[in-house]
Design goal:
five-stranded mixed β-sheet; alpha/beta; 252 residues; 2 domains; 8 helices; Maf protein; 35% helix; Alpha-Beta Plaits
Length: 252
């Protein structure tokens, strides 16, 4: 059985290229879940430990069967993990470059954080068209042609879907990711408490879709996790995965 260690293991004398060490980066998934999947795999002759960095966990694996464990974790978590040490925004840019796709964003509660993270990556100008921060409802109407706020509320699947569709109407990108939500500390209700968020996904030539989730925590955590989830949705859309029922929704 694989043994998990919370304390960092000593670095081996050889470097990673020798094949003695492998890295796996998991996005949004907590250490406890990664550990559970690894232990349940029953794969022996490997050791691993975690390094948590905000919304990602870097797993360092040692041992002869570490690649088997990586394959097992990847099969369980899909696009929420990637072999090697990386960030979700760097992974998104890489995927878009490989597939020759471009992306745009339409953000409300995240206030441009998704766009900021993408543009942190050198070379992102090749794949990122740009983004709109439509915070006020009038901005949603004016900049993204959103009409559903009076009927459904600004925080709704319908508005998230309209935001994504409206972004594609206003730009030349292949994919649009939108997010609207209640980051708190105020603004929540019994029907839509703080942490209620909706994401929209638009892909040119296909119908747009929207999905809801609830994110726990304070304002900063909600906004950050929504931004990371938006980046992951960009990857999901770029590779053509089925967004409905995707593993991502278990971990936002």
């Amino acid at each position: 059985m694989c043994a998990s260690q919370k304390e960092p293991l000593p670095r081996p004398e050889v470097d990673k290229e020798s094949g003695d060490v492998s890295l796996l980066t998991c996005f949004l998934v907590p250490e406890s879940r990664i550990n559970e999947i690894a232990v349940d795999s029953g794969i022996a002759d490997c050791r691993f430990h975690f390094r948590s960095e905000r919304d990602r966990v870097v797993v360092t694996l040692f041992g002869a069967r570490r690649n088997e464990l990586i394959n097992h974790l990847s099969a369980s978590l899909g696009l929420l993990c990637h072999e090697g040490g990386t960030t979700v925004q760097a992974r998104l840019v890489e995927v878009l470059l490989v597939r020759n796709l471009t992306l745009s964003t339409a953000e409300s509660c995240t206030g441009g954080l998704i766009a900021k993270l993408i543009t942190d990556v050198p070379g992102s100008s090749s794949v990122f068209w740009g983004g709109v921060v439509a915070y006020d409802n009038s901005a949603k109407r004016t900049l993204l042609s959103v009409s559903g706020v009076p009927a459904f509320g600004a925080v709704s699947a319908e508005v998230a879907q309209e935001m994504a569709s409206g972004a594609l109407l206003r730009n030349s990108a292949d994919i649009a990711i939108s997010v609207t939500g209640i980051a708190g500390p105020g603004g929540g209700s019994d029907e839509k408490p703080v942490g209620t968020v909706f994401f929209g996904i638009g892909r040119r030539g296909r119908p747009s879709a929207a999905f809801g989730a609830h994110v726990s925590g304070g304002r900063d955590r909600i906004r950050r996790r929504c931004a990371v989830a938006g980046l992951l949705l960009g990857i999901v859309s770029a590779v053509g995965d089925d967004i409905d029922g995707h593993t991502l929704w278990n971990y936002i």
